[in-house]
Amino acid sequence: MFETIKLCPPDAVFGLTEEFKIDCKPDKVNLSVGVYKDEHGRTPVMRAVHAAERRMLAEHQGHVYLPIDGSPGFNQRVAELILGSEHSVILEKRFATAQTPGGTASLRIAGEFLKRQCGVTKIWISNPTWSNHLQIYRSAGLELKQYDYLDSHGTGIDFERIYRGVENANSGDAILVHTVCHNPTGVDLSREQWDELLRLISKKKLYPIFDFAYQGFGSGLDSDAAPIRRFTESEDFTGEAIVCNSFSKNFNLYGERVGGITATAKTAKTAAAMLSQIKLIIRTMYSNPPKHGGAIVERVLSDDALTKDWKTELDGLRARIQLLRERFVEMMTDQLPQADFSHIAKQRGMFSYSGISAEHVDRLKREYGIYLLRSGRVNIAGLNHNNLDYVCNAIASIMR
Q1: Minimal CA–CA distance to 281: which of 139, 109, 66?
Q2: Does the active-site annotation cover 211?
């Protein structure tokens, strides 16, 4: 009966990872998968996470189910991390937060919620975007519309194109925006551009979904959340939004799948109604979230000393990535003075649209065992002092 099923092509990122594993080149480098690596090429367990897990093991509380929307303590800490503990939405309880298996699940729940409860049929997404965004919202039954994001060089912002694209949206459409560290480009809006875009979203009565997977990797935890906080508190904007966040990156909890969905409303009564509908969607998707990863985040964010240590280490991760960006630009300038890689130092987060062509990407993989996406997207956090020379020399060699 299953003979008619066709083989699905591999995922672009995970397919490259499988190729990388079987590549026998001794100096191979994987710059495709979006995982933070330290100077030794390992994804570290953060100090606060390790401390929290030790305490949790000593106090083992069993493996009972969580509520449908997850741990209440986790949800409160997440909302406060995103909005700030003194934000009016928090103080007036005008939010609904649910724990989810990673940011991916929260994005899907947001699509389902807007479709079922608000009659949304279309969602506007930047071009380019994280490739899974497109599959997530197709699966949710929404029509995809895209607005151009980059300039003609493909390495910087073109805000006029963004604005013109969003102007084509109709009242009642949804729009997905990358809050910080745009994936895959690393190109972010300025504060002034954000305010202009948020005013347009409000004017056109669009439903915004803030994809917030990289809080802390741009400028800092609070500054990275600034567009969300302004939108949900300022009288200049509608204030009603959905935020989908992840702790894969800023806690290095990739395999634990920890995320959340937070919706903001005009009243506490509306927020409670929204949570009830979000819980109904969760119940029919995966019933309730996994426990361990969320418990780690809750423990860290509920302990002042652990929170301080986590923030310090996260600041260090962000600073190291910026240093790698700057060092990469310096080395490529020395190797190829006729080429301009300065945009890489201006971009933010783990990813960068390098400007390397698909043809050169193919040669990097074939000749040097250096793996990146054919779009030229580089995971800057995959670089270190051991492989940076090798990568820069290889890029210079094929581009000469």
Answers
A1: 109
A2: yes
Q: What is the pLDDT of residues 82-94, one digit of tens each?
A: 999 999 999 999 9
User: Which of 72, 66, 65 is closest to 275 using CA atoms?
Assistant: 72
pLDDT given for residue 309 in this prediction: 98
- Domains, the chain, with CATH or none: 12-45+307-399 (3.90.1150.10), 65-302 (3.40.640.10)
Of 37, 115, 145, 249, the catalytic one is: 249
β-strand pairing of 241-246 with 29-30: unpaired
Structure tokens of 277?
Answer: 């509908």
According to the model, what pLDDT value does residue 239 have? Answer: 87
Q: What is the pTM of this model?
A: 0.93
Question: Is 122 buried (19+), middle (13-18) or exposed (0-12) by CB count in 10 A?
Answer: middle
pLDDT for the residue numbered 237: 81
Categorise residue 50: left if φ over 0, alpha if ψ from -120 to 50, beta otherwise. Answer: alpha
> DSSP per residue over 210-269, as a string?
EEES-TTSSS-HHHHTHHHHHHHH-TTS---EEEEEE-TTTT--GGG--EEEEEE-SSHH
Neighbours of 57 (CB within 10 A): 8
Average pLDDT of every residue of the chain: 94
**E strand residue ranges, 111-231:** 122-127, 143-148, 174-178, 207-212
DSSP character at residue 150: B
Adjacent-strand bridge partners of 371? 30
Determine which one of 124, 130, 194, 310 is catalytic: 130
Q: Contact, 344 vs 187, CB < 8 A?
A: no
pLDDT tier at 13 (50, 70, 90 boundaries)?
Answer: confident
Q: In whole angstroms, what is the distance from residue 19 CA to residue 14 CA?
A: 9
Give, to the nearest 10 degrees, the angle between helix 304-335 and helix 292-301. Answer: 100
**8-state DSSP, 287:** S
Active-site residue, selected from the candidate residues 69, 173, 188, 211? 211
Q: How far apart are CA 373 and CA 358, in angstroms?
A: 8
